[in-house]
Design brief:
This protein has a six-stranded antiparallel sheet, covered by helices on one side. Strands 1-2 form a two-stranded antiparallel ribbon. Helix content is 37%, strand content 17%. The protein has helices at residues 2-16, 25-46, 49-52, 76-87, 91-97, 146-149, 190-209, 216-221, 248-251, 260-279, and strands at residues 59-64, 68-72, 100-106, 123-129, 138-143, 154-159, 166-172, 226-231, 244-245, 289-290. A hairpin with a 3-residue loop joins β1 (59-64) and β2. α1 (2-16) packs antiparallel against α2 (25-46). With 311 residues, it is α+β, with helices and mostly antiparallel strands. The longest helix is centred in the N-terminal third of the chain and has 22 residues, at 25-46. The structure holds a DNA duplex (14 and 14 nucleotides). This is WRKY TRANSCRIPTION FACTOR 41-RELATED. It is found in: Nucleus. It comes from Salix koriyanagi. Residues 180-190 have a biased composition (Low complexity). Residues 176-215 are annotated as: Disordered.
Length: 311
Amino acid sequence: MGVGHGMALLYWGLKCHHLSPSSSLEARQFLLDKILSSYEKSLSLLNWGAWVADQPKPTVGIVDSTHSFAISSPRSEVSDQDCKEECGRDVYKKRKTQSRWTEQVKVCSGTGLEGPLDDGFSWRKYGQKDILGANFPRGYYRCTHRHSQGCLATKQVQRSDEDRSIFEVTYRGRHTCNQASPSPVASPSPKNDFSKQSKYHCKQQQQNQDKPKPTEDIFVNFGSDCVQVKNEELGSKDDIFPSFSFPCTSFGNGDEENNIFTESMMENSFLGSFSPTFISPATSESNYFSMSACPLNSFAIGYQNVQTLGV
DNA sequence: CCGATTTGACCCGT
DNA sequence: ACGGGTCAAATCGG
């Protein structure tokens, strides 16, 4: 309720104020401060403070004029795990306490793409396993910048048994790296960089999910993907975070300039590193965040039409 | 040559 | 003992 209100307010603010790249930096900062303050109030209302209280306050900064802003709330877990990784193998214990959430990525069949879409981050595959009871193997990915920047974000990709067009992407940890450079959506010339960068993703999809498709189709066909985000296993079993969603039409007003919220947040941090904190750090499995971002024109990888699919 | 992927072995929690 | 997750050597490919 509270967070939903906060999110509604956030969206309202962005929409009503027509936050655009041409807006002054001060205006945007002011609005974001307002929004965040409301959001934080909502958080405290929710009494999920136990989790939030330890967290450094989320900071919002407008990075540059390409209307990308970074929202981060660094956690001690990062340095903690860094140490543990260096000092010994304690990743297994740490795993339990890491933030984790799942996106169900639906790739519409017959569109030329059969595989999990690129989420704007660069991943390196480090393993694959056959999972008991699953028809398809699970792929394990970690951030490409794990060593160069100590980024500990990982994800698992598994194709759904019931619907081959659905991929369950489970993210763990947040990106602490500077992912602006390799990200196809964040680059000044997305299309060129994307086709180049998606090389490995494309290949990986072919090898991993046995459905080779032409690279050329990807950029277009991502537009029909659906992503559902849900949070998992973050400790709390309390139903304090009812699911909520934006109506699909809300974002897609066709005005690119007004899509700062969707394109910026999603491409930079929303799905990649910010969402676990922002969305629902303490939800039970029955509660999940659902987010619509239909015609995300600039959001090249095309997260779209997220709905409460129900799990 | 360098970075990504593959894949069997290994580790850990249950 | 078993299953899930990670490691790392071998391999691939630009």
